[in-house]
Predict the structure.
Amino acid sequence: MKIQSAEFIKGVIQDRYQGIDTTLPQVVFYGRSNAGKSSTINAVAGRKALARTSHTPGRTREINFFLMDHAWYLVDMPGYGYARLSHKERATLQYLIKWFITETHADARLSVLIIDSKIGLTESDREILDLLMSQNERVIILMNKIDRLKQSELAHSIKRVAQDVPPLVTVIPFSAKTKKGLEILFAKITETE
Ligand SMILES: Nc1nc2c(ncn2[C@@H]2O[C@H](COP(=O)(O)OP(=O)(O)O)[C@@H](O)[C@H]2O)c(=O)[nH]1
Ligand SMILES: [Mg+2]
């Protein structure tokens, strides 16, 4: 799979969902700040900077929609779990994500949750996952940065995450850096289209 065209459509917050064509499939990327969401999106898009990889994470507060190949939306959710957010900013972000998952609709949606394979599922990942499961969403978890793990650590980490998620959730070992797992992700995206 190679993306030919990628066009930024809009940043969405509550009550700004109009203009989104809900008949187009959506592939939605979630992840804690620093899990590698921007790197993963750029690997999918085959571009260096579709999503900004940032040294000041947590700056994007909107849900960014990109139209890919005139056929599907790549949806970049704001990163969460950023330590330096104020209580109020954190609540606003939580509310936005919850609104998107529970109140917006698309005919087809694949949710991709990116986690750091060294860290595993955190409390905030778990909250997102529970919300997604409550809506019967199709979910895959990318265990990113596996290039940093030894084989034995990787096996242990995969086992731990797999035990911790509902059986219908696909867990894919991944590296945005080496592109390991990218073909599997592409296959899942193609199934959604
Ligand atoms: N080793 C390694 N580092 C990665 C990988 N993916 C992302 N990173 C690094 O992790 C940091 C955060 O990545 P970024 O894509 O900005 O994460 P985001 O905050 O979730 O958007 C950056 O320093 C990336 O270079 C990966 O697969 N392997
Ligand atoms: Mg980012």
